[in-house]
Design goal:
By secondary structure, the protein is an alpha+beta fold. The protein is built from three helices and twelve strands, in the order ααββββββββββββα. The protein is rod-shaped.
Length: about 350
């Protein structure tokens, strides 16, 4: 049997001695390594052997760090995405606004050039809103009678006729567009001088020439301008272009559809032409008072003739009553005749 003492009670080198020994060995190794670089191979071997253990120990740290980095990057990306979207929206709005301002600037330049070239006084106006009636093609502009506008003045843009002023207030005016169902404008074909009247309302946004002969010299693409025969529109203003011609064998008339050349629904700035035609009143307007006077005279003559006829009838009736009175008196005188 082994009667040696248990390991707990075995006496060996003290802890202080071991500490001093290992510290001395460490210092010696540090000095030798720093002085002669003798431990480089040992370090390389130890690093190679301990690398898998080191990687395994660092896995939890790398996982936790990756989770935090993912969450932080997600928040940063979401914030950056929102900022980019907002910036993109602002740039899109700025781009649209810039394009709108450029188009408006170009139109104003064209209107200014047209104003300088026009021999007829014009007034620049801006469209405020459409009229309240949804079944009519009308707009309201920001000029009225205080600026010299009157009902009947034509309204144009840089490309042609838009409509006509139909109602005027002190500070606003209502303009009826060419495409309104109650609007008509005398036109003339530039190519051959053929005159007609363009009406609105048959198709949305278009005009048509009604009751045109099937043999009329019209072609698709012909430009129509104002003829000036109505005394409202000055002659030579572009109105529309012919886009479709319908000719049928069973009728003597053709249907001609036209598209306005002006921006009827495109722009906000227009020009009101203060056009005075100088054309006198129509003959039927002059003869109307004469006809009324003749009518009144004829009525007075008829009344006088009726009165004279009634007086003549009354006189004849009185004359017819007098012989009857004489006839009734003669029997009373008959007894005295034998006495004479």
């Amino acid at each position: 049997m082994d009667y040696s003492p248990p390991p707990l009670f075995k006496q060996g080198t003290s802890a202080v001695a071991r500490l001093i020994f290992f510290v001395t060995v460490a210092l010696v190794l540090l000095f030798v390594d720093a002085r002669y670089d003798a431990m480089r191979i040992v370090r390389q071997v130890a690093a190679t052997v301990l690398m898998p253990v080191e990687r395994l120990v660092l896995v939890p740290r790398d996982a936790i760090r990756g989770v935090f980095d993912y969450a932080q990057s997600s928040v940063a990306l979401a914030t950056e995405n929102r900022e980019l979207r907002r910036a993109s929206l602002e740039q899109a709005n700025a781009s649209v606004r810039q394009a709108q301002l450029e188009a408006e600037n170009n139109q104003l330049r064209k209107l200014l050039s047209l104003t300088q070239q026009s021999a007829t006084p014009v007034t620049a106006a801006e469209i405020l809103y459409d009229a309240r009636d949804p079944y009519s093609q009308r707009i309201v502009i920001d000029r009225g009678s205080t600026q010299g506008l009157r009902a009947g003045y034509p309204v144009i843009d840089e490309r042609g006729v838009i409509g006509q002023v139909t109602r005027v207030s002190p500070f606003q005016a209502e303009v009826t567009l060419l495409t309104d169902k109650d609007q008509a404008i005398p036109v003339q074909v530039v190519r051959n001088g053929l005159r007609s009247v363009a009406f609105g309302g048959s198709r949305a946004g278009q005009l048509d020439l009604r009751f045109m002969a099937a043999s009329a010299d019209l072609q698709q693409g012909d430009l129509l301008v104002t003829s000036g025969l109505d005394g409202t529109y000055p002659p030579g203003l572009p109105v529309a272009k012919i886009v479709q011609i319908e000719r049928k064998a069973d009728t003597a008339f053709s249907r001609v559809y036209c598209e306005p050349v002006a921006g009827v629904r495109s722009h906000r700035q227009v020009l009101v032409v203060r056009y005075e035609s100088g054309i006198g009143p129509r003959p039927q307007d002059d003869t109307a008072p004469q006809k009324a006077e003749k009518g009144s005279r004829s009525a007075a003559a008829r009344a006088a003739a009726d009165k004279a006829e009634k007086a003549e009838k009354a006189e004849k009736a009185e004359k017819a009553d007098k012989p009857a009175d004489n006839a009734t008196a003669s029997p009373a005188q008959t007894p005295t005749e034998p006495a004479r």
